[in-house]
């Protein structure tokens, strides 16, 4: 893509001048991963040059507090609306899971067999494990029991308060298909991919209270992807396009159907983040609070129901996390989706040949 095209694409995704946005720098040593509806944030904070510890904040991202860790290193991955945190810690030999009580108090070990991981927690304290069917744990009464598809590897990624679970399974052809369940994990329904011969894989990443799902569609051979959302109960895939590159992924969706995600190119260039609202994408790096402020390469990680987004990026060439907020009267003026073109078969062959040569050179270098 030439510079002129890049300029046109950037203009298409500029933010509305009517938007009321604010940003709070959470600090250089902070990695924010999740936010609840009161604005409590979790993630990890670097307490010295060696160790990172899970943390929780007060409402609206104020007053970062390290959680008393049962391991030397810990990371908070999910936080529910009572402030319970689900995460991982390093016990000196291997990684394990933990859970806290309300407001991040009382971290306790969350053992599970075969190095499986816990992927989500809802406001009822129900849990899901990553690899379905491999969930032998002393916390089985809290784990939503999902019956995997016969003979197929099935992976959970998120759940809502009714116990609807989303994730993906690997079919007989080795392709990934997004799924959603009914309440309390009952019954797996294939969300599908897209009515397009090039998009053969899909992964569901998040789900809101009405069953709207956010995730990513992946092209055959992996050359390109697009963020997607669905309607209620996982019905109907809507492609969201990209911010001008060949890659996008929707990471989180709130109960208003607003989704956030990342976009860029597979070579790592042009990385930015977006919000999907009012029928289109808004490039967050185009907001006044980011322009000229030293921020670049921002990666969003979560959005709540009150217009608050957390993420991280480069601030004056240092890694920082942020809390980005918009008001209820914010007006979004998104533009039409940019749908990246599909390479011709000859282009695929050239790409495959190039990847093969890179692999050969890497093996040669190792030898």
Feature tags:
disordered N terminus; Methylamine Dehydrogenase, Chain H; four-stranded antiparallel beta sheet; 26 strands; PEP-CTERM protein-sorting domain-containing protein; single chain; mainly beta; signal; HAF_rpt; 367 residues; Ice-binding_C; disordered C terminus; 41% strand
Q: What is shown here, in short?
A:
The chain has 367 residues and is mainly beta. The protein has helices spanning 3-12, 345-366, and strands at 21-27, 30-35, 41-46, 52-56, 65-66, 73-79, 85-90, 95-99, 108-109, 118-121, 127-129, 154-159, 165-170, 176-181, 188-192, 199-207, 213-219, 225-230, 237-241, 247-253, 259-264, 272-277, 280-283, 295-303, 308-315, 318-326.
Largest sheet: 4 strands, antiparallel
**What is the count of β-strands?**
26
Oligomer: single chain
Helix content: under 10%
Poorly predicted runs of 5 or more residues: 1-19, 345-367
The structural class is: mainly beta
Going across the biggest sheet, name each strand in turn.
Answer: 1-26-25-24
Q: Into how many domains do the coordinates divide?
A: 1
Global Rg:
21 Å
Mean pLDDT: 83
Report on this model:
The structure is a single chain. The protein has 367 residues and is mainly β. It has one domain (19-366): Methylamine Dehydrogenase, Chain H, CATH 2.130.10. Helices cover 9% and strands 41% of the residues. The strands form seven sheets. The chain has a four-stranded antiparallel β-sheet with strand order 1-26-25-24, with no helix packed on it. Strands 2-3-4-5 form a four-stranded antiparallel β-sheet, with no helix packed on it. The chain has a four-stranded antiparallel β-sheet with strand order 6-7-8-9, with no helix packed on it. The protein is globular and about 50 Å long. The chain starts with a helix and ends with a helix.
């Amino acid at each position: 893509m030439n510079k002129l095209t890049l300029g046109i694409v950037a203009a298409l995704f500029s933010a509305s001048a009517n938007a009321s946005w604010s940003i709070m720098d959470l600090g250089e040593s902070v990695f924010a991963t999740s936010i609840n509806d009161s604005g409590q944030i979790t993630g990890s904070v670097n307490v010295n040059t060696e160790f990172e510890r899970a943390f929780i904040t007060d409402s609206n991202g104020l007053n970062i507090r390290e959680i008393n860790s049962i391991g030397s290193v810990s990371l908070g991955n999910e936080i529910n609306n009572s402030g319970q945190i689900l995460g991982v810690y390093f016990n000196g030999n291997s990684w394990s899971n933990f859970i806290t009580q309300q407001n991040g108090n009382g971290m306790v070990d969350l053992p599970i067999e075969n190095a499986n991981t816990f992927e989500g927690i809802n406001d009822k304290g129900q849990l899901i494990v990553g690899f379905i069917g491999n969930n032998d744990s002393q916390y089985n009464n809290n784990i939503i029991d999902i019956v995997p598809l016969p003979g197929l590897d099935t992976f959970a990624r998120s759940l809502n308060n009714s116990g609807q679970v989303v994730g993906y399974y690997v079919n007989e052809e080795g392709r990934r298909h997004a799924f959603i369940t009914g309440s309390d994990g009952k019954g797996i329904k294939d969300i599908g991919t897209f009515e397009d011969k090039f998009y053969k894989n899909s992964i569901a990443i998040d789900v809101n209270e009405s069953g709207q799902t956010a995730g990513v569609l992946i092209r055959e051979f992996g050359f390109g992807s697009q963020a997607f959302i669905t309607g209620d109960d996982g019905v109907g895939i809507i492609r969201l396009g990209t911010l001008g590159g060949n890659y996008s992924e929707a990471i989180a969706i709130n109960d208003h159907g607003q989704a956030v995600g990342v976009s860029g190119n597979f070579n790592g260039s042009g990385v930015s983040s977006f919000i999907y609202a009012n029928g289109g994408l808004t490039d967050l790096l185009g907001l006044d609070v980011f322009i000229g402020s030293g921020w670049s390469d921002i990666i969003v990680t979560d959005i709540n129901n009150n217009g608050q987004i957390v993420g991280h990026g480069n601030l004056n060439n240092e890694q920082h996390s942020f809390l980005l907020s918009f008001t209820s009267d914010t007006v979004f003026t998104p533009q039409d989706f940019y749908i990246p073109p599909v390479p011709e078969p000859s282009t695929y062959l050239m790409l495959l040949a190039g990847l093969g040569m890179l692999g050969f050179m890497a093996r040669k270098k190792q030898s």
